[in-house]
Amino acid sequence: MTAASAELAALVPGARVATAFGQSTAHVAVEQWHAAAAHARDGLGCAAFDWLGVEDAGRPGASGLRHAVFLHVVQPDTRLGLLLRTEVADEPLPSVAGLWAGAAWHEREAVEMFGIALAGPAPHLLLPDSFAGHPLRKDFVLASRVVRPWPGRLEPGEDGSSAPSRRRTAPPGVPDPSWGPRRGGENGA
After folding, report:
1. pLDDT digits (tens, 9 = 90+) for 26-56
2. Between the N and C ends of the chain, which has fewer C-beta atoms within 10 Å?
């Protein structure tokens, strides 16, 4: 991110510009999200949509309660990028898909994977209708890895035909052994 991009971020009305690790971000309230995005496209010439993403807002002890939404757009002639950021809790996020058609896919992914509310319909994109939960949230437990065995090839020692070659560890995202049912009907201590 260049100094010119920081100057571009400063031109977003109602935004608080913060710079960290050389990246300037224009922070806007969720109520100003659509207006700031429209100004970026129409007023600042950021006609190229790059990406829209969501992450946990990072408050200790409040995992999954607030999410930060990022929008990165680019001025095609100068190649300067603008990064907009807002935070949402339960309020719906105004859609920017009317400004950049490519944002529709990213918004639907955010709704499905993080469980944020979107102003307007967001049909399922990646997960079946019967799927419960939002798999990219930090508070989502990957219990299926514990309850249902992995369908692929087994590690040496897991098929019962030879001595185990190493201590069995739980995959990332799996809770400690005292949580819930285990494979083979055993419960942890």
Report:
1. 999 999 999 999 999 999 999 999 999 999 8
2. C
- For residue 183, which amino acid is it? R
Q: For 16, phi and psi rounded to 5 degrees? A: -105, 120
Residue pair 137/114 in contact (Cβ under 8 Å)? The answer is: yes
Q: What is the pLDDT of residues 54-69, one digit of tens each?
A: 998 877 666 768 899 9
42 φ, ψ (degrees, to nearest 5): -85, -40
Predicted TM-score of the model (pTM): 0.72
- Close Cβ partners of 93 (under 8 Å, ≥ 6 residues apart): 30, 33, 69, 86, 107, 110, 116, 117, 118, 119
In contact, 116 and 55? CB cutoff 8 Å: no
Cβ contacts of 54 within 8 Å, gap of 6 or more: 67, 68, 69, 70, 110, 113, 114, 116, 136
Q: Report the amino acid identity of residue 124.
A: H
